[in-house]
Structures are given as structure tokens and as C-alpha cells.
Amino acid sequence: MELKARAPGKIILAGEHAVVHGSTAVAASVNLYTYVTLRFPTSDENDDSLKIQLKDMDLEFSWPIGRLEEGLPGFTSPVSSTPKSCLPESLKLIAALVEEKNIPEAKIGLAAGISAFLWLYVCIHGYKSATVIVTSELPLGSGLGSSAAICVALSATFLALSNSVNLDLSHQGWLSFSESELELVNKWAFEGEKIIHGKPSGIDNTVSTYGNMIKFRLGELTRLESTVPLKMLITNTKVGRNTKALVAGVAERTNRHPDAMASVFTAVDFISKELAELIQSPAADDLAITEKEEKLEELMEMNQGLLQSMGVSHASIETVLRTTLKYKLASKLTGAGGGGCVLTLLPTLLSHTVVDKVMAELETCGFQCLIAEIGGKGLEICFEGSS
Ligand code: PMV
């Protein structure tokens, strides 16, 4: 039996950083996916191991089942329907199993993701042989939710081939889960994210699972339905960033200038709320869509200005802003800033020539450009051969 899942990445349309201080933020899925294929060996294959292949990096890690039983004991009767947190004792055992694989130093960031994989797999399937193949269209560690997408896709394939999910095995093409199944996948994915990030907010895995857009404030998530398709140019500056340090920098600035920063956060709150209203409001024709896009561009520019005043922009981000502005396009950083990715709205009536020119100019600066549709479907699965 072979099964594939795809889970999208995310962008933050408005409200990053300010959300940490109680403002509203809006996040959306992007149609850039992480794919996970799960295959159980047939009885005549005689394969007694658990393997994960990271195709994009040409890496494979494998553990004999006996080594898993010995190194991570106690999973003889896995409980797939109840998401389980990985306690520090188990995490230590998993870390030892991952360490044995001598992950190349340059790729050491993968270790936490591999640990999440081992935890999710063993909790859901125990000591069963399998091969898991991962590929992704999402750049790693750039704020597009690559780790959440992998946790969602892993959880989905593992659950789909367990007893806790009921699927139509004869379905052709991509198939969605039911609401209750999505909820289960989301909870497991969150457990994986906890292994990778320590204390994630749950936004990335929720957007990846359900797709579309969500509004969030003080840990409360509201799902939104966008009425018009939005297209964004995502520019990956390839400048590595440290989310924790950037969040701490904003907190320090807030301590130094509490009243001024409170006003900044309040302004962001209004921007996010207006943006959420805007994307849900109907737009009947091209004129209405253009008006909506113009308002959205203004809100993005205002949010970017406020992110600059929080001190989280970066020379590379400013280069993207200057370049896109030459073509009268509005941009803002997305996620933690300090590098990472920048969003540029591509209005519906914008010519392909302009898009090609701006992309060419950004690429000569050494940036990576991706075009993505915003607010599309979340997790989907497909039985191999039918996609
Ligand atoms: O780096 P990202 O894309 O995961 O976004 C971080 C968003 C912040 O608002 C800066 C931090 C947070 O936890 O909300």
C-alpha cells in the first residue's frame, strides 16, 4: 500500500511580531507544498527497517526495526487516535537514534525534523517497516512554514494508513480529509512542531492542515474564507534569520519606548482586522477586485512601515522593496523579518511582462523568486498512481 500527502506552506499577510504583543495577525496558505509518500514493504520484500528519504537533498536515513525496539522501547501497541506529546525522556532516546546517523554538519538543522518523524511514526505505527519519501517546494527555514508542512504531511500519511481514519481507497486523484480527521492530523502535527520548535504557536500547522486563511489573536484562531484568489510573488532573500532573537529585539524596543510601541501594535491590530474583513468581502467584477487589491496593497505597505519601526527589516528586504516599488508593486516582509521572505502582491490585471521583469531584476540580486497563490486548499492525500 502506497499513499502520498501534500501539505502547503504559509505566509503571514499581516501582524507578525505585533501578534506576540496581543495584536491580531492574518496568515494564509500558499500553493507550494511538501509531499510525503508512505510505503509499507510487501511480505516478499523482506525489508525490516524504517527509512526516510529526503529526495531534494539526496539523503536517506534508516533504522533496523530491532534497533528502534531497543532504542525507543514501549511502543508495541501504538495509540494512533490520541496525540501524544514527546516527553524529554523520549526525546533523549530519539536524539540518540538520530545522532547515530551522522547527519552532515551543514544539514544539522534536519535533526529536529527527523526526530519529529521518528516520534510521529512510532506513536502511530509502532515498530512496523516502512519507507517514507519527502520532497518539498518550500525553502527550508525561511518563514514559509516548511517544518509545519512536513509534520502535517507525515501525520496525514501515517494516520491514513492506520485504523483511526476512514478513507475511500478507490478514490482517484487528490482527496481531502473530513473535519474530524483534519483535527486529528492537526493535533499530531502540532506534537511534531513542538519537537522542532519547542513552543510553536500552532498557526503554521493549522494553516497547513486547513488551508485558506486564518486570523489569530492571543492564541485564538478563526478560520477565514477568502472571496478572491490572490497571487503573490514571494522573494526569498536567502538571508538566514533567527526568529527568537528578532522577537527579543522587538520586546527590548517595547521596554525602551512602551507608549510609542503600544501605538505601533494598535495600528497593526487595525490593519490586520481590516485586511481580514477585506479578503472576506464579496467582489463581483474586475473593478471591485482591483479596488480590493489596491486597498490590500496599501495595508501591506502600512504594515511594512510599522515592521520597520519595530526594527525587524533588513538591507536585503529593503532591496526587494525598492526593486518592486520601481514597478509600482507593494511589498512587505513576511514572518520574523531580518532576511527571510518578502511578499509582493501581483494584481489580477498585472501584465506577465512586468512580472518577468521584476523577477529577473530580483534574481540578479541573488534572490529566489516564487509565484504562489494564496489561501488555497490545505492538506490532501492521494493513493499513488491516481494523482
Ligand atoms: O518566522 P515565522 O514565519 O515562523 O514567523 C514568526 C512570526 C512572529 O510573529 C515574529 C513570531 C510569532 O511567534 O508569532
TrEMBL record:
Keyword field: ATP-binding, Cytoplasm, Kinase, Lipid biosynthesis, Lipid metabolism, Magnesium, Metal-binding, Nucleotide-binding, Steroid biosynthesis, Steroid metabolism, Sterol biosynthesis, Sterol metabolism, Transferase
One GO BP: sterol biosynthetic process
Keyword Cytoplasm attributed: yes
Record GO cellular component, one term: cytosol
Pathway field: Isoprenoid biosynthesis; isopentenyl diphosphate biosynthesis via mevalonate pathway; isopentenyl diphosphate from (R)-mevalonate: step 1/3
Keyword hit for Transmembrane: no
Enzyme superclass (EC): transferase
Compartments where found: Cytoplasm
Pfam families: GHMP_kinases_C, GHMP_kinases_N
Enzyme Commission (EC) number: 2.7.1.36
Membrane-spanning ranges: none
Molecular function (Gene Ontology), one example: mevalonate kinase activity
SUPFAM superfamilies reported in the protein's UniProt record: GHMP Kinase, C-terminal domain, Ribosomal protein S5 domain 2-like
Start and end residues of each GHMP kinase N-terminal domain: 126-211
Gene3D superfamilies: 3.30.230.10, GHMP kinase, C-terminal domain (3.30.70.890)
Catalytic activity, reaction form: (R)-mevalonate + ATP = (R)-5-phosphomevalonate + ADP + H(+)
Domain of life of the organism encoding this protein: Eukaryota
All copies of domain GHMP kinase C-terminal, residue ranges: 294-347
Family that this chain belongs to: Belongs to the GHMP kinase family. Mevalonate kinase subfamily.
This protein's name: Mevalonate kinase
Lineage start: Eukaryota, Viridiplantae, Streptophyta, Embryophyta, Tracheophyta
